[in-house]
Amino acid sequence: MRIVSEDYIARRLQVKGIVQGVGFRPFVYQLAHKYGLKGEVANTSSGVTIHIEGSREQIECFEADLATRCPPLAQITAVNGCPESVRNYLDFTIASSRGEEAVSTLIAPDVSICGDCLRELFDPEDRRYHYPFINCTNCGPRYTIIDDIPYDRPQTSMKHFKMCAQCQAEYDDPADRRFHAQPNACALCGPRVSLYDKDRKKVAAHDPLAHAAALLKQGFILAIKGLGGFHLAADAGNSDAVSRLRSRKQREEKPLAMMSVDPARIRQYARVGPEEEKLLTSLQRPIVLLEKKKTNTIAAEVAPRNRYFGVMLPYTPLHYLLLECGFTALVMTSGNRSEEPIAIDNDDAFERLADIADYFLIHNRDIYLRSDDSIVRRTAGATRFIRRSRGYVPRPVFLRNPVPPILACGAELKNTVCLTQEDRAFLSQHIGDLENLATYEFFRLTIAHMERILAIAPEIVAYDWHPDYLSTKYAEEQDALEKIPVQHHHAHIVSCMAEHQIEGPVIGLALDGTGYGADGTVWGGEVLAVWPDRFERLAHFAHVPMPGSAAAIKEPWRMAVSYLNDAFGDQVWNLDLPLLEKIGERKLRIILEMIAKELNSPLTSSLGRLFDGVAAIVGIRQRVSFEGQAAMELEMLADEAGVAVYDYEWVADPAYQILTAPIVAGVVRDIQKGIPTSTISCKFHTTLVRLFAELCELLRRKHRLNRVVLSGGVFQNSLLLSGLIQALKAKNFEVFAHQQVPCNDGGIALGQALVAAARVRT
């Protein structure tokens, strides 16, 4: 037995966080050797356990470096240490993974190829030259290929590929960059790419990727299997190809995402500032909204009637190999039919996408869970999520206080779900609109998968008040769980409070298109006093009818008629407006009768519907092909130089009701004067900013509240968000807006979970 001094001690360290599959154990191994320490490190179901032996000084240095020098993908949330008996280890080793009863490890998100792997990919002397699945512990797939924990190869979709001798040697070598990189492989032993036509006939090609690139250059549409699902790809400079893709996918006008090989290529058609470049080149590689250059070679059909392109850089080696073939940009839009989840399985892709894609570039590595591309935008001095998915999920949002295990089911549109554990909230990847069976099944699968890999057994289920949402129906079927319904706009505000770790009371501006209100009407223009467990409605837009109910969302001209009727009454027949001429007397009479007789015309206070109505009144759009289209185009047309406002007023009854009639009447007067639409749009936005800032000032005096929280899909509008933040701060308010989760319904599950937790505490 080795004789040691009294200063020779042992410690046991339990490390929690994202510490599996990110090169953490080899980092610990090399750090232990640096300080001459003995012992072992092992993955467990709770994180990583380290037994360390050496001098007290060496161990203290080791622990200091452990917290400050960890690998780039690692995220340590806790290190718990305790004295341990000296076992007289002869060396420091990496032990096999161990299962334990308590499971609380964190899984890393899928991230882009790292610089080291990218250099190897294009090095003709490297054995992985042009291998489209090159990866290491610092990059590649994680969340989408894991089936269970601990994160080891047998628990991933790589279990079907037996490593060759060279890959196994890398995998077993603690000094190698690929030590325990679970997706480690090469062309001899790993996944492979194949090219097929839409009839499932394999295309004979020595290099399927080069052949696929040639087909794209010829104007064909390809379905390409990536990291979290399939993309539908076309040459972004080919108008015919992009138009055919739109037609086949039945995606009439919604902007299409693009991918370019590097920021220099993107600068040929879009403006890229320093902050945007940081986002583009980050490990997460989200789609970033960038202002278009006036002159560019991108097909107009990519993003019609929009000032912005949605652009990302490649994040897989396969993407790089395609884009190195000389494209300015490729359209890379979700591989799905309209309103369905993206395809992840080869057979499913052939089945669902054969009438869209001409060819299929597939591979034989399974995707266990689909994950759409994330979408972000720099606005009002911060990065804001429009969609939080690939690259960010399942990193948690850290909470101010521990909460019980809760499942929050989200809303209907842009659905995500949320699971909580201790001081962490895990928001899922984008699921989509729960309006069909396929998306509902994806919703159920995501819940089951997250519960399994995060080892969370919820005790409570939180859900939206709306009785007809599929997410609500699912929650109500969970008989073993305590059920807590949460009002939609309450959840919106609390989601933003949660990410900023603040508690109430606050003034909450919850502005969106649709939410089931406490009075049974459709809310969406709400000013609330909010605590985590309750809320009070302080102000809202005056209710107007939605003639045709859901039809009024798809046909904004209906809302235009409703607002005009509210503002002008019987005089609406005398208005000289191009919109009314287009509608025609017959349709106008039908809508007015529906309103008068209260036939299929639920009341709404929604600011989203007011945006729709104004957009239709000024002649921008009578019908929409996707949610929020009319409002978005109204924003895009705004002349940002204006300072004028329309008349506005509110009345107390008992909450303040913001009257829409003065605003609508002002819009109509400007149209009749021939004022440009760009000026009207700017004036409308400026009016809303001024109105809400003054209303908040009134409510501060009345309720002594100085913190304002902004949430709801309307705040995707950059003009409104930045203008209101600036106006409120000028009045010395503390202002909080979303940065970690979307302001739209993609973030609402977080709020539902925190409301439920607060109600349990009270």
The helix tally amounts to 23
Radius of gyration, Cα only, in angstroms?
A: 28 Å
Structural class: alpha/beta
Q: Tell me the strand order in the biggest sheet.
A: 6-13-7-8-12-9-11-10-14-15
Mean pLDDT across residues: 94
How far apart the termini lie comes to 59 Å
**Which geometry do the CA atoms define?**
globular
User: What's the helical proportion of residues?
Assistant: 25-40%
Which range does the strand content fall in?
A: 15-25%
The largest pleated sheet is described as: 10 strands, mixed
CATH architecture of the domain at 193-363: Alpha-Beta Complex
List low-pLDDT spans.
none
CATH domain fold name of the domain at 193-363? DHBP synthase
